[in-house]
Amino acid sequence: MDYEHLRYEHDDHVVTLTYDRPEVHNAISRAMARELHDAWRRFRDDPDAFVLVITGAGETTFCAGWDLQEASELDELGDWDAFRVSLHDDPGPCGYTRRADVFKPVIAAVNGYAFAAGLDTALLADIRIAAENAEFGALERRWNIVGGDGLTVRLPLVVGYAKAMELLITGRRIDVREAERIGLVNEVVPRGRALERALELAHEVAALPQGAIRADKESVLRHVGRTLEERLRLEAEMTMSMFMRRDSHTIGAGAFKAGRAPEWPHHGL
Fold first, then answer.
1. 237 close to 165: Cβ distance less than 8 angstroms
2. What is the maximal distance between C-alpha atoms in the chain?
């Protein structure tokens, strides 16, 4: 697929995905959402892509959410059964937001506003690097729009129930320092440097053996909603991946024993 509203750039083992609609603050249209589904699957299925960095074009907006100008022109729901089926089959109206099948690391370079579905998008990342001018908020409250792209699912997992409920109910916007304090942001950098820092970190992660990273991320994602006993059993099952890799875990253990850096012929996979 050719992208009109995205930039997909592959450098070594790092992919940078840029939301590229600066004229509307990188708001997500239906056409852009279709491109996002393709881009995320493209990254997921590419054996040479190890880490994804997501960001927005410009230095003031990461993503302002759903394109409400386009949304205001949508037709009525029509037939209820048809709407219900399409809703449950939809992988996400604002991007790859209703899927949890990407076990490779994802880093968000939040370079400005991350509101509504833009906040949902930032929550897709495992690590969020934010510029000092970044702001966050569930601003869809103002327009009586529900958080339908993972917001009510992922936000409590990231910041905890009490703070998530405050942000969801009030719809207030928070600055980057508050976002860092509540755990929404991992690192704050000067304005204009979020992407630079995210790419620096992405290349550091891409240089690590990838097998354990993916197994651990998958384990964490699959733990959600399970009992403690189930989670411990699942974690134990995930260790089986150590014995299924082309680069055996014994390479790393042997290198440790010999006091040298390990060499990974297959990137630890």
1. no
2. 68
Secondary structure element (H or E) that encloses residue 107, with its range: strand 106-110
Strands in 163-230 per DSSP E: 173-175, 187-189
User: What contacts 92, CB < 8 A, 6 or more positions away?
Assistant: 33, 36, 37, 98, 99, 149, 150
Q: Which amino acid is at 39?
A: A
* Cα–Cα nearest to 38, from 89, 3, 75, 87: 3
Decide if 86 contacts 32 (C-beta within 8 A): no
Cβ contacts of 21 within 8 Å, gap of 6 or more: 5, 27, 29, 32, 57, 67
Partners of 128 in beta bridges: 108
Q: What is the mean pLDDT of residues 96-117?
A: 94
pTM value is 0.89
- Residue 98 tokens, joined: 């209703």
Q: What percent of the chain has pLDDT over 70?
A: 91
Give all strands of the β-sheet with 173-175 in edge-to-edge order: 61-63, 113-115, 135-137, 173-175
pLDDT digits 0-9 by tens, 209-255: 999 999 999 999 988 888 888 878 878 877 777 767 777 777 866 77
How far apart are the C-alpha atoms of 112 and 129, rounded to whole Å?
A: 11
Round to whole Å and give the CA distance between 12 and 114. 28
| Gap between the Cα atoms of 62 and 140, Å rounded | 16
Looking at the DSSP bridge assignments, the partners of residue 15 are 10, 52
∠87-89-91 over CA atoms, to 5°? Answer: 95
pLDDT tens sequence across 59-83: 889 999 887 676 656 555 567 677 6
> Can you say how many angstroms the Cα of residue 62 is from the centroid of all Cα atoms in its chain?
13
Distance of CA 50 to the CA centre of its chain: 14
Residue 130 · residue 60 · CB < 8 Å: no
Phi-psi region of 184 (alpha: psi -120 to 50; beta: other; left: phi over 0): alpha
